[in-house]
């Protein structure tokens, strides 16, 4: 019964993590440029159950449950929303916008719903959280009454799904994604990309994860009850 505890608790942990991922996707269904996170499950180690009456090759393999191996980002495009705003931009290809915080850290995003941000020395193009949007040369973009005075830069990666999520709809370049490379692509103005979350799929995944959580909880409960019966018989 100890093995049942291990398998059940491993399943509970995996499905709880899955529910967290799904909840985050659903919460961002209306977030511009948000990319769906997808779970990758895997089996834990199998142990050989020795059966003396058979050859070793016929021994049964007992699993130790499942685990959530990784969470991957689906970089497919979402639908577009035509806003006609002069601070809204959309990238048709696989590129990203580059933004910089006050500490000088550079991040990348698909969310092109920008705004004019007052720096104290004038207005620049920035994100809804106040991060500065960069052009293809890594410079900030002044904003006047006529709108942005330059186009946001479009940056590409050799392996965009390898970008590290930094929260707040931002990504960080790393060794897996490769360095950011400025391209000659120009974003389209007056359009923003919406989230690529498929709400119907997420609801199905939610039901599956809930059922899996319940079944693993039943395994743990049943194993506990059987263990208690064995202890009572040995008392």
What does this structure look like?
- By secondary structure, this protein is of the alpha+beta class.
- The chain folds into 2 domains: 111 residues, no CATH class; 114 residues, no CATH class.
- It is built from 2 helices and 19 strands.
- Strands 8-7-11 form a 3-stranded antiparallel beta sheet, with no helix packed on it.
- Strand 15 and strand 16 form a beta hairpin.
- Helix 1 runs antiparallel to helix 2.
- The relative contact order is 0.21.
- The model has no long low-confidence stretch (mean pLDDT 87).
Strand content: 25-35%
Give the overall pLDDT as a whole number. Answer: 87
Order of helices and strands: HEEEEEEEEEEEEEEEEEEEH
Shape: elongated
Q: Which stretches of 5+ consecutive residues score pLDDT under 50?
A: none
Structural class: alpha+beta
How much is the radius of gyration in Å? 25 Å
What distance lies between the first and last C-alpha atoms, to the nearest angstrom? 18 Å
Count of structural domains: 2
Domain Flagellar basal body rod protein N-terminal: 5-35
Domain Flagellar basal-body/hook protein C-terminal: 188-233
Main location: other
InterPro entries: Flag_bb_rod_N, Flagellar_basal_body_rod_CS, Flagellar_FlgE/F/G, Flg_bb/hook_C_dom, FlgE/F/G-like, LlgE_F_G-like_D1
